[in-house]
């Protein structure tokens, strides 16, 4: 009887295990499982190498292929070739080369090549390759390749490749490639490539490439390339390239290239190229190129290569290498080293080598040549006057028009000094 029981035990348990061992021990150092199924399909308990169905093991080691449900109770040892298609779950963490489907681990989820599907890790979800799908982690999501889909982490979402989709992290969202989609982080959203989509960070949004879309940061929005879209920052919005769209900053909006759109800042709006659109600043709107559009600066509006449109500056509206064209007004001075064309209003002084249009200053106009009308306490026209000057004292070397003032001087007129009215036409 004892002999019969021993034989039955051997047939039911020892032989299946021995068969599996003979099949795989040639290339794997550890095998041992109790399998309830046929041809690798069914339920397996132990370290079966290949299985389809439901598989439960204490610690996976050198497993190759599981299709179905793979549950690991403890930390895996080493599985460089394992591919799980279905559900991979672990009380510690599931580990495989590739996981396609659902991966859940109390500690985390680890893949050596790729993760595709839904991945949930208590501490971390990590892949040495790409992560694609819906990934959630209490601490961090890390992909050495691309990170694509809906990615949520308590601390950080990080990709050494591109990051695409909805990316949310309590502290930082970082991609060494491009970052595209809806990217939200409590502290910083950073891309070494381009940043596209809706990008929001409590402190800073930074791209070493271009930044495109809705970019909002509590302190700074910075792009080493171009910045396009709606760009808002509590302190500064900065682009080393051009900036286009609605650009707003509590302190400064700065572009090393052109700045186009609606540009506003508490202190300064600055472009090393042209400044085009509606430009509003508490202190100054400044361009090393041309200022075009409606520009308002609490202290000044400055365009080194000219100003075109409507410019209002508290202390001054100034152009260096080109004319001011349009309407310019300041409580201080309106000046150009080239010319003034249009309506110019300067509280202290209006000054240019040539003035064409209508000029008003409670104090002084100083110009080399006047074409049009000037109203100022002192009209100092050092060349030719073609038109009308009205003031307390009007002076010109070459009058071709009319002077109205308490005292009028025209060096070329028959009567060089006259009160009230002087006229000369040639």
Structural class: mainly beta
Q: List segments where confidence is low: pLDDT < 50 over at least 5 consecutive residues.
A: 1-30
Mean pLDDT: 91
Question: Distance between termini?
Answer: 142 Å
* Backbone shape: rod-shaped
Rg over CA atoms, rounded to whole Å, is 38 Å
Number of helices, where a helix is a run of at least 4 consecutive DSSP H or I residues: 1
Strand content: over 45%
Based on DSSP secondary structure assignment, what is the total number of beta strands? Answer: 39
Main β-sheet description: 31 strands, parallel, barrel
Helix content: under 10%
Please provide a written account of the structure:
The structure is a single chain. The chain is mainly beta. 5% of the residues lie in helices and 67% in strands. The protein has a 31-stranded parallel β-barrel. Residues 1-30 have low confidence and may be disordered. The chain has one helix spanning 2-24; strands spanning 32-38, 41-47, 50-57, 65-72, 83-90, 95-105, 108-121, 124-127, 130-137, 140-143, 147-153, 156-159, 163-169, 172-175, 179-185, 188-191, 195-201, 204-207, 211-217, 220-223, 227-233, 236-239, 243-249, 252-255, 259-265, 268-271, 275-281, 284-287, 291-297, 300-303, 307-313, 316-319, 324-330, 333-336, 340-346, 349-352, 355-367, 370-410, 417-424.
Question: How are the secondary structure elements laid out?
Answer:
Blueprint (H helix, E strand, L loop, with lengths): L1 H23 L7 E7 L2 E7 L2 E8 L7 E8 L10 E8 L4 E11 L2 E14 L2 E4 L2 E8 L2 E4 L3 E7 L2 E4 L3 E7 L2 E4 L3 E7 L2 E4 L3 E7 L2 E4 L3 E7 L2 E4 L3 E7 L2 E4 L3 E7 L2 E4 L3 E7 L2 E4 L3 E7 L2 E4 L3 E7 L2 E4 L3 E7 L2 E4 L4 E7 L2 E4 L3 E7 L2 E4 L2 E13 L2 E41 L6 E8 L2
Parallel strand pairs: 2-3, 3-4, 4-5, 5-6, 6-7, 7-8, 7-9, 8-10, 9-11, 10-12, 11-13, 12-14, 13-15, 14-16, 15-17, 16-18, 17-19, 18-20, 19-21, 20-22, 21-23, 22-24, 23-25, 24-26, 25-27, 26-28, 27-29, 28-30, 29-31, 30-32, 31-33, 32-34, 33-35, 34-36, 35-37, 36-37, 37-38
Antiparallel strand pairs: 1-2, 38-39
């Amino acid at each position: 009887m004892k002999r019969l029981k021993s034989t039955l035990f051997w047939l039911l348990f020892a032989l299946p295990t021995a068969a599996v061992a003979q099949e795989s021990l040639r290339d794997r150092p550890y095998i041992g499982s109790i399998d309830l199924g046929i041809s690798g399909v069914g339920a397996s308990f132990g370290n079966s190498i290949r299985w389809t169905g439901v598989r439960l093991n204490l610690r996976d080691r050198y497993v190759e292929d599981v299709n179905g449900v793979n549950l690991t109770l403890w930390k895996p040892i080493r599985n460089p070739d394992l591919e799980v298609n279905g559900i991979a779950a672990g009380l510690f963490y599931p580990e495989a080369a590739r996981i396609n489907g659902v991966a859940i681990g109390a500690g985390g989820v680890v893949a050596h090549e790729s993760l595709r599907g839904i991945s949930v890790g208590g501490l971390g979800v990590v892949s040495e390759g790409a992560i694609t799908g819906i990934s959630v982690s209490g601490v961090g999501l890390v992909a050495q390749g691309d990170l694509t889909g809906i990615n949520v982490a308590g601390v950080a979402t990080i990709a050494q490749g591109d990051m695409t989709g909805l990316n949310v992290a309590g502290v930082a969202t970082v991609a060494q490639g491009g970052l595209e989609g809806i990217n939200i982080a409590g502290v910083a959203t950073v891309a070494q490539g381009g940043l596209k989509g809706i990008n929001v960070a409590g402190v800073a949004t930074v791209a070493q490439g271009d930044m495109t879309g809705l970019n909002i940061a509590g302190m700074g929005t910075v792009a080493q390339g171009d910045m396009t879209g709606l760009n808002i920052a509590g302190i500064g919005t900065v682009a080393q390239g051009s900036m286009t769209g609605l650009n707003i900053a509590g302190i400064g909006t700065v572009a090393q290239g052109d700045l186009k759109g609606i540009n506003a800042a508490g202190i300064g709006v600055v472009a090393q190229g042209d400044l085009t659109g509606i430009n509003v600043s508490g202190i100054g709107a400044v361009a090393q190129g041309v200022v075009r559009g409606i520009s308002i600066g609490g202290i000044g509006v400055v365009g080194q290569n000219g100003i075109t449109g409507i410019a209002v500056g508290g202390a001054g509206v100034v152009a260096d290498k080109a004319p001011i064209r349009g309407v310019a007004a300041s409580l201080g001075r309106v000046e150009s080293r080239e010319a003034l064309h249009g309506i110019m209003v300067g509280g202290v002084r209006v000054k240019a080598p040539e003035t064409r249009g209508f000029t008003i200053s409670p104090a002084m106009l100083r110009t080399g040549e006047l074409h049009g009308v000037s109203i100022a306490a002192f009209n100092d026209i050092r060349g030719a006057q073609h038109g009308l000057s009205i003031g307390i004292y009007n002076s010109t070397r070459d009058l071709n028009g009319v002077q109205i003032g308490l005292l009028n001087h025209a060096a070329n007129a028959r009567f060089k000094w006259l009160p009230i009215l002087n006229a000369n036409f040639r």
